[in-house]
């Protein structure tokens, strides 16, 4: 469902930075994959490319078999909002909106009534343990609470593809396990999930681990334990 | 060197939130302490109070034996910049300044020449592995690189007291270990260090762990292993 062919993402500068350096990668529908690697190795850049939030400097990205280089920005945005839920490493919540409003924003333009958006957003926020923080603005939330609002917003639309950039970095182990549980359940329901994580235990418990170093794929393994 | 007596921090609202609920705490000079607890339990609020970035709703905070309620905001700011280095959970880098400029900002108002500020900032950035990113703006850095710039800025002035709010949340284990190594060395040189962390291994390896739940001190232990 996601395929990268010889993808390069280079940032200009002195010197230029090759954040993703000639990556070939295929992720099949319904896979659950961890992306690991040192800080600065290109993981977020890679996930942004996979999520069509960024375009390659060279190479091709195919989503659902469609060559994204042939899509306009608006067509790409349409594909993205219909199919992909993205959890950002830096959350990117809207500061003027409450937790529930931030999550509900993930459901706009789908013909869902405001009442129904509110209802679903409340449910997802309760699933991530924030039922008591629905009307808090982001600056009135803890770091881990903001992270969970970002997760809720990515999941509220039941996306076919979930891309999560270090979703448990600000969470204690109990809360983190609950989020991982949630991801496993979405996966069991058919979602394709790609998670960047620095948590070795989390990564080891997923069926496939891809490791990145200096913008290149270093290893790509599959757990053989059942 | 740091003492809290019956400290409360309550946020107004419907309902009000008692983020720190009647905490008594003493941290002696030269201690190395971990603060752990669930997401939303009050750790960052507690650290901000300890670091004089916030004032209690009631109760007293003493820094170096001085009752902070008797200091004006500017006197407090002076005490803080002379004695305390703070690593924020959300980094708070200045977006228009490069990595080295952000760190150098931690040395202003000390009569240090610009050349010397630049030199020291470059050194600290190299110590956290960012020698190759000195002139990058924050939006041209990865999440873990921004975290390390925040760490470098907190440490560049050799503060007597280091308060770090989840300093390794965005780092892979190798880089994280390097940061922890650095903290142990500062501690060996006499700094008082308080670290909020969700990393159980990191916390277990510090001489003292304080755990917080719902704004209250739940436990306060000291490692007996040498
Ligand atoms: N300005 C505010 N107004 C109301 N409530 C707030 C405000 N700031 C924080 N809170 C609440 O106070 C509680 C404690 O927040 P704090 O940031 O100290 O938690 P934390 O232990 O650092 O959590 P985390 O591990 O997620 O970073 C949270 O439940 C949060 O929602
Ligand atoms: N706009 C930019 N211009 C120049 N270099 C950039 C830019 N954005 C990112 N980089 C560099 O590209 C490299 C890869 O960044 P990326 O955010 O993908 O790393 P990462 O693996 O997600 O790291 P982390 O684990 O710290 O989040 C980093 O070394 C970073 O400094
Ligand atoms: Mg990243
Ligand atoms: Mg916090």
Describe this structure in words.
Chain A is 32% helix and 27% strand. The two termini of chain A are 24 Å apart. With 226 residues, chain A is an alpha/beta fold. The relative contact order of chain A is 0.19. In chain A, the strands form 2 sheets. Chain A has a 6-stranded mixed β-sheet, with helices on both faces. Chain A has a 4-stranded antiparallel β-sheet with strand order 2-1-4-5, with helices on one face. Chain A has helices spanning 43-50, 73-83, 99-104, 114-127, 143-155, 173-188, 200-204; strands at residues 2-11, 17-27, 32-36, 58-63, 66-67, 84-87, 161-165, 192-196, 208-213, 216-222. At the A-B interface, α5 and α6 of A face α5 and α6 of B. Residues 43-44, 89, 165 of chain B line the site of one magnesium ion. One magnesium ion binds at residues 43-44, 89, 165 of chain A.
